[in-house]
Amino acid sequence: QVHLVESGGGLVQAGGSLRLSCAASGNIFRINGMGWYRQAPGKQRELVATITDGGSVAYADSVKGRFTISRDNAKNTVYLQMNSLKNEDTAVYYCNADVVHVSRSQTIYWGQGTQVTVSS
């Protein structure tokens, strides 16, 4: 079993910044891709950013130039630096991780979510 624990959410004014963290622990041999998703009230969950184990990144068009995803493989942790936040960034943010277990089986895990609220 693997647990993903997110932190760093909160309330911020428009134009401000937040940094989210997501640490994975448990039965981990290696973590392939990691990512951040978000879900606003009444909307479907959407991709925000992803990063491979080699460091290749991809972003949703809505956050390009404002958000930066990074990871620390030694700590099994992924980060999301969010700058120039807008009201429309308000959502619950979830991290996920494509985990290879010691047995070499593979499972995708999700964090519990952290609320980000951007006020005008």
Could you give the topology of this structure?
Layout: E1 2-7, E2 10-13, E3 18-26, E4 30-39, E5 46-51, E6 57-59, E7 67-72, E8 77-82, E9 91-100, E10 106-110, E11 114-119
Parallel strand pairs: 2-11
Antiparallel strand pairs: 1-3, 3-8, 4-5, 4-9, 5-6, 7-8, 9-10, 9-11
| Total beta strands | 11
The share of residues in extended strands comes to over 45%
- Going by helix content, strand content and strand pairing, the class is mainly beta
Low-confidence stretches: none
- Helices and strands, in order, run as EEEEEEEEEEE
Our measurement of the CA-to-CA distance between the termini, rounded to an integer number of angstroms, reads: 41 Å
The helix count comes to: 0
The outline comes out as: elongated
Mean pLDDT, rounded to whole units? 97
As a whole number of angstroms, the C-alpha radius of gyration is: 14 Å
The major sheet is characterized as: 7 strands, mixed
Helix content: under 10%
Labels describing this entry:
four-stranded antiparallel sheet; 120 residues; 59% strand; mainly beta
What would a concise description of this structure say?
The protein is 0% helix and 59% strand.
Fold and architecture overview:
By secondary structure, the protein is mostly beta strands. It has no helices and 11 strands. The strands form 2 sheets. Strands 2, 4, 5, 6, 9, 10 and 11 form a 7-stranded mixed sheet that branches. It has a 4-stranded antiparallel sheet with strand order 1-3-8-7, with no helix packed on it. Strand 5 and strand 6 form a beta hairpin. The protein is elongated, with a radius of gyration of 14 Å. The model has no long low-confidence stretch (mean pLDDT 97).
